[in-house]
Specification:
heterodimer; A: alpha+beta; 8-stranded mixed beta sheet; two-stranded antiparallel ribbon; 8 helices; B: alpha+beta; 5-stranded antiparallel beta sheet
Chain lengths: 293, 688
């Protein structure tokens, strides 16, 4: 059993600890999905485990990009690309809340000394057509995790139920390290040298904020959205679920950039979301069909 | 009687559903146990993770005796033997009984009743199966559906644990205390359960939690010489989401006091769920009262400050961006926001609100007629613009307030600013309503538009489902009309609103829905509903405030004895005249017209004369022509007392069915006239 060493944890220590904790509790530690996603829930492992017939437990870090949240590196609390630690358990264990609370202890948040709350927050993803019931988890009035029991995914009833725990790593790190600015988070040490979040990500944040809000070529992005739609249909027609689903993820990200550029009217937004959801539903339906064969 | 209690221990139950859960638990309990067992002193509790039923119940000792019929006595022996064998009885167990002209064999089966111990698990399963949550979920491999996963079911009857078997949900003889700082324990009786829960940092009673919060607030106020804004709805929410609510005081960065005060206060309460603090002089200061679910010994305060400052930083960012955005830009955004299928955009909705505000202005009293079209148009052209703002997108609870600041920033006058700010009154309880006439009109028009538009699209509100908040909207309509004594007649309000919006559906569904809300507001039992129906039936022309006034007056003055005396005479009238005489062509405003249908020359007794004179006099009674509702009903009730007295005298002393056909018919018409007169003031027949 790994001994959880609790000093002032660096960002990478938090990741290692959570990986080890959940690894010790039956999870396979998988790799992040290597495409731009808005949330860990988009990871193909999460989606297809939730609707599929196989029970599985796994965990992973997922960098998540939300163009509208970019602040050019100037806001101490909001970033374009944040990091989630995702835990997906199917079926949901009876003691899932206890497991979660113990994971907080593992990363240095003593639950007997903090005000930990489960506040109602039913989650929905319009593009994934996913619905779940659950909570935001607050630690001393600050949201640090999302806790969701998926009921439906792409319109498909989940059975057995999958539970997803999402840790907001930046929030947690700022809290543990008692830091007021995300860029001051200590990511780790290279020998004696302290490496901060800002050292690794500040320029990335600044340049991508400029790209998302000012420079992204909206004409090219619209063409790209159309082309992705065509490709999804072609891939589905030849039964290639995972490539088709990845095109859906790319479509979602393109949509998010167009939104950040204010290049989409509200009416169009609804239409695009419904289109992407429709594609995701087809991918999921095909996946089920192939599983049943 | 034995003490019993049941605990359903689950993951956190949303606060918004806890009150519904309390009511439903009680209802389901009664539905199951009535007729099965005797019980008393039932209490129900809901905490973040527990639903608890407690009471006293008598153990069931009754036996059920079932009589079964066999063959006729006269049938061949082999048939009788087959009957005995099939029921595993002997001839000695049987007896004979005559049914009609035949004699049959009978025997009795004595069935011992289920006892409470055996029925408790059946009840628990019944409750889980029949509970209706607006949203429910499944978990793990269980087939149960509940608001959140149930993790243990505990049943105790007479100090003994009873295990249940219900959808694979665990049922262990153990109670968990506070999730973070409590321990588990095994209770004996309910009092022990409550005591040990508290020792493990769970307060079961909502009242006790409420008092704890109030007492701690008072302590902070006196210790620190401050004033805390005690928002009742927020206190209730904290009672619902905390097992052991403990107050703490902390502060946010003083630079955020530069945010407009109302936005900051609203933000602290609705987005951050903390209580704003004021100095003794009434100035908002950079402190707040938070509520933690943990005891003072454990709670450190650093987290709240960090979190609050981060959120306030966001709020400031959004607000500064929004006040720089033009009104035209905001309105163009709301043109793209779909309001509801078939009802266009939010911008379209604002236009409908304007039309209804014109209807209302022309309908209400003189003060409102002075309101200018131009200003109303100005207000409504901006009333929903903040739905296109970043601040409201992030924090929807700030709608109205953000719009009012944008209007103020753009130089619009106080009427306009207030009307935009107060459009959600009375749902937003934070600020004092100004009573500005434009605010009243716009707030009312907003809710009337929701009501008529949704009904016109065919929306139905049923049971506990009201996803569009129509019940709340109508409650607010009634509240505003009553509070400001607006002379609005319900029929007129709905029909004119339909007309101006070009709606063509029948208004009855909409009208009945509003009446149902009015019933719910005014009465608490069936008798009172009858009073309301009596008023509405006779006075469809009444405005809503007049209906409420009439109801309140009658409720206080229409005592049981009086009602009984009216019932007596009404019954006498009804027995004779269950088919109403129609009085075709009779003008009740003219005594000669009345005399043309009731022939006074055919009266044979002084009782007929007296009744005719009294009942017709009341039609011309000047004191009953007045507009003052209280005075009207005061006079009416005293007149009716007289009518009842002399009416009974008439029935006691006059033979209605006289031998003379003309006299008899005349008397029947006179009795119908008595009913007609009574009904014209109040439909007393509904008491019947």
């Amino acid at each position: 059993m790994f001994l959880y060493i609790i000093c002032s944890m660096t960002f990478q220590d938090i990741i290692f600890t959570l990986q080890r904790y959940w690894g010790d509790n039956g999870c396979i530690i998988v790799v992040p999905h290597d495409l731009e996603v808005g949330a860990g829930t988009f990871h193909p492992k999460t989606v297809f485990t939730a609707i599929g017939s196989k029970n599985m437990n796994f965990a992973y870090v997922q960098p998540s990009r939300r163009p509208c949240d970019g602040r050019y590196g100037e806001n101490p609390n909001r970033v374009y690309r944040h990091h989630q630690f995702q835990v997906v358990l199917k079926p949901d264990p009876k003691n899932v809340q206890d497991l979660y609370l113990k994971s907080l202890c593992a990363i240095g948040i003593d639950t007997s000394e903090h005000d930990i709350r489960f506040i109602e927050d039913d989650w929905e993803s319009p593009t994934l057509g996913a619905k779940g019931l659950g909570w935001e988890v607050w630690c001393d009035s600050m949201e640090i995790s999302q806790f969701t029991y998926f009921q439906k995914f792409a319109g498909i009833q989940c059975s057995p139920i999958t539970v997803e725990l999402t840790y907001g790593l930046e929030r947690i790190a700022m809290y543990i390290q008692d830091i007021d600015n995300v860029y001051d988070i200590i990511w780790g040490y290279s020998g004696e040298k302290k490496i901060t979040y800002g050292d690794l990500n500040y320029r990335f944040e600044k340049e991508f904020s400029a790209y998302n809000f000012e420079y992204a070529n909206t004409d090219d992005l619209r063409i790209s959205l159309n082309n992705l739609g065509k490709e999804i249909n072609e891939l589905l027609s030849v039964g290639l679920v995972f490539p088709a689903y990845e095109m859906c993820i790319k479509s979602s990200h393109v949509f998010n950039i167009l939104d950040a550029r204010n290049a989409i009217s509200h009416a169009e937004r609804t239409s695009i979301i419904l289109t992407i959801r429709d594609y995701v539903s087809k991918c999921c339906a095909l996946f089920i069909e192939q599983e049943n064969k | 009687m034995k003490d019993f209690f049941i605990e359903l221990y689950s993951e956190e139950i949303p606060f918004g559903l806890q009150e519904m859960a309390l009511n439903q638990m009680r209802e389901i309990f009664d539905n199951f146990w009535k007729g099965k067992a005797e019980y008393s002193d039932i209490e129900v509790f809901v905490t973040p993770t527990r639903m608890v039923l407690h009471g006293k119940m008598l153990e069931i000792t009754n036996e059920e005796v079932i009589e079964k019929r066999g063959p006729q006595v006269s049938v061949p022996e082999n048939i009788i033997n087959n009957f005995l064998k099939a029921n595993s009885i002997s001839l000695q167990d049987c007896y004979k009984k005559q049914i009609g002209n035949k004699e049959y064999f009978f025997f009795k089966i004595i069935k011992p009743s289920e006892n409470v111990t055996n029925l408790m698990p059946v009840f628990v399963k019944y409750m889980v199966e029949n509970f209706k949550w607006p949203k429910s979920m499944r978990w793990g491999l269980s087939s149960a559906k509940w608001i959140r996963p149930i993790r243990n079911i505990y049943v105790n009857f007479g100090g003994n644990f009873i295990s249940t078997s219900c959808f694979d949900i665990p049922s262990e003889n153990i109670i968990k205390g506070h999730k973070l700082i409590g321990s588990t324990f095994v209770p004996t009786f309910f009092n022990d359960y409550v005591k040990k829960l508290k020792e493990n940092f769970v307060i079961l009673s909502a009242g006790e939690k409420h008092k704890k919060i109030s007492d701690e607030m008072s302590l902070y106020e006196s210790d620190m010489s401050v004033k805390i804004l005690k928002v009742d709805s927020l206190i209730k929410e904290h009672v619902g989401i905390n097992d052991y609510p403990t107050l703490f005081i902390s502060e946010f960065d003083a630079k955020f006091l530069s945010l407009p005060k109302e936005i900051l206060i609203q933000f602290l309460i609705t987005a951050l769920k903390v209580f704003p603090v004021f100095s003794k002089d009434g100035d908002l200061i950079n402190k707040f009262i938070g509520v933690a679910n943990i005891t003072k010994t454990f709670y450190p305060k650093k987290g709240s400050t960090k979190f609050l400052n981060a959120k306030l930083s966001d709020a400031t960012f959004f607000f500064e961006k929004d006040v720089k955005t033009s009104i035209e830009e905001l309105n163009s955004r709301i043109k793209d926001i779909n309001y509801y299928n078939g009802l266009g955009s939010v911008y379209d909705r604002a236009h409908r609100i304007y039309n209804i505000s014109i209807v209302l202005r022309n309908m209400i009293g003189d003060d409102f007629k002075k309101l200018s079209d131009e200003k109303l148009e100005q207000i409504v052209s901006m009333v929903k613009m903040d739905l296109g703002s970043s601040m409201v997108f992030e924090y929807p609870e700030l709608q109205g307030i953000v719009g009012s600041y944008i209007a103020k920033n753009n130089g619009f006058d106080n009427d306009v600013v207030l009307a935009i700010k107060e459009q959600y009154y009375p749902e937003s309880e934070i600020s004092d309503f100004s009573g500005n006439l434009y605010s009243i009109i716009v707030s009312l028009a907003d809710k009337v538009e929701s009501l008529v538009s949704f009904f016109n699209t065919g929306v139905h509100v049923s049971g506990s489902r009201d996803p569009l908040g129509l019940r709340r909207a109508v409650n607010s309509i009634i509240f505003i009309i009553d509070k400001f004594n607006l002379s609005i007649n319900l029929d007129n309000l709905i029909s004119k609103s339909y007309e101006i919006l070009g709606y063509n559906k029948n208004i009855d569904d909409c009208k009945n829905f509003v009446l149902e809300r009015l019933y719910s507001k005014l009465y608490s039992d069936g008798n009172e509903k009858t009073l309301l129906c009596m008023i509405l039936d006779s006075h469809n022309e009444y405005t809503i405030p007049e209906i409420i006034m009439a109801f309140n007056f009658l409720k206080s003055n229409f005592d049981k004895n009086f009602i009984n005396s009216i019932l007596v005479i009404y019954k006498r009238i009804y027995n004779l005249c269950c088919k109403k005489y129609t009085f075709v062509g009779c003008n009740f405003a003219e005594i000669n017209s009345i005399k043309s249908v009731i022939n006074c020359d055919l009266f044979k007794t002084e009782y007929e004369n007296r009744v005719f004179n009294l009942f017709s006099a009341i039609l011309f009674d000047e004191e009953l022509q007045q507009n003052n509702i209280n005075e009207f009903y005061n006079v009416l009730l005293s007149r009716v007392k007289n009518l009842v007295t002399y009416g009974n005298d008439f029935f006691d002393n006059v033979m209605i069915n006289a031998n003379d056909e003309l006299v008899k018919n005349n008397r029947l018409v006179l009795v119908s006239f008595m009913r007609k007169v009574l009904d014209s003031f109040l439909n007393f027949s509904l008491l019947f």
